[in-house]
């Protein structure tokens, strides 16, 4: 018997969708995430879907993103956007709050935050 994946521990696709929706709701509503919001299109539907699809696979669930778009190539796909420390920190702050709001288990949230921070920091393409 294998240990459950983070995807399973979160509660599968419905929980990942709820997390992503809360993330984008916060980004859209909270002034402290304004720079992050400015990097996104006017409507967030496509962004919501892409992050949901990506996170499902990244967390050990279905590979929806890869099936639709191939390898994520996250850094290359984000190069057109100016991402610095502020944007990284806003992304992380938004995701941390979304995980808290959605009741993600504290130990799991901590592990996810550590992994997500590494990815978010790697996405930076400008100083400061």
Percentage beta strand:
under 5%
Number of DSSP E strands: 0
CATH superfamily: Globins
Content-based structural category: mainly alpha
Mean pLDDT: 96
Largest sheet: none
Distance between the termini: 46 Å
CATH topology: Globin-like
Radius of gyration: 14 Å
What proportion of the residues is helical, as a percent range?
A: 55-70%
Describe this structure in words.
By secondary structure, this protein is mostly helical. The protein has one domain (9-122): Globins (Globin-like). Helices cover 68% and strands 0% of the residues. The chain contains 8 helices and no strands. The chain has helices at residues 6-10, 12-29, 34-38, 45-58, 64-69, 74-78, 85-101, 106-122. Helix 2 crosses helix 4, helix 2 packs across helix 7 (85-101) and helix 7 runs antiparallel to helix 8 (106-122). The chain starts with 5 loop residues before the first helix and ends in a 6-residue tail after the last helix. 22% of the residues are buried. The model has no long low-confidence stretch (mean pLDDT 96).
Key words describing this protein structure:
128 residues; mainly alpha; Globin-like
In short:
By secondary structure, this protein is an all-alpha fold. It has eight helices and no strands.
Topology:
Elements: H1 6-10, H2 12-29, H3 34-38, H4 45-58, H5 64-69, H6 74-78, H7 85-101, H8 106-122
